[in-house]
Amino acid sequence: MDFITTPVPGIPISGNIKCGSTNNQLISNCLTMSPGSSPAPAPLPPLSRYENQKRRDWNTFCQYLRNHRPPLAVPLCSSSHVLEFLRYLDQFGKTKVHNQACPFFGIPNPPAPCPCPLRQAWGSLDALIGRLRAAYEEHGGLPEANPFGARAVRLFLRDVRDFQSKSRGISYEKKRKRAKQQVAIKSPAGATLPCGETNAMI
């Protein structure tokens, strides 16, 4: 699985990135965590891995909007801009996605290299959108106006998942939990019982 991190090649990181002023309660400033920035006056508890990744992803998206032509403010961002961002990230992907004409299409472990492009893995994009969706609302965005939760974005991710599963011969369907496991547990009396029937013992 690929992981989206910052800085993104080709996008310079600056000290304070203004994503545009807002009128109501929407986002006015994008978070920045550039190297060399002065520490906060009061020490804060360390962020979790998820929170750090979410902050880096938010900074990356803000940089993308800032370098967009024309530059965009977060409140003006729509689902189409989110899709542009996801396609832009494909150039930094590390997952081989075979074309339908490729002889290795649908083969999980191809025996030889091929000229098919590298893309961002579906799982990485799906997790990225989840973090950006949360970050958008944390910075004042309204849930009903969240471009990361738009139907077009959900359909895009589903199409990417479906095509990559066919291309790479990998199923992304969740495995159904078996009702009764094959492993047996011995009762105190020595009787052998299936795990699914020993709720009190597990």
UniProtKB/TrEMBL annotation:
GO cellular component: nucleus
GO BP: mRNA transcription; response to light stimulus
Highest taxon, organism lineage: Eukaryota
Predominant location category: nucleus
Presence of keyword Amino-acid biosynthesis: no
Keyword entries, A-Z: Developmental protein, DNA-binding, Nucleus, Transcription, Transcription regulation
GO MF annotation: an example: DNA binding
Pfam families for this protein: ALOG_dom
Localization per Swiss-Prot or TrEMBL: Nucleus
Residue ranges annotated for the ALOG domain, each copy included: 49-176
Family designation: Belongs to the plant homeotic and developmental regulators ALOG protein family.
Protein's name according to its UniProt entry: Protein LIGHT-DEPENDENT SHORT HYPOCOTYLS 1-like
Lineage: Eukaryota, Viridiplantae, Streptophyta, Embryophyta, Tracheophyta
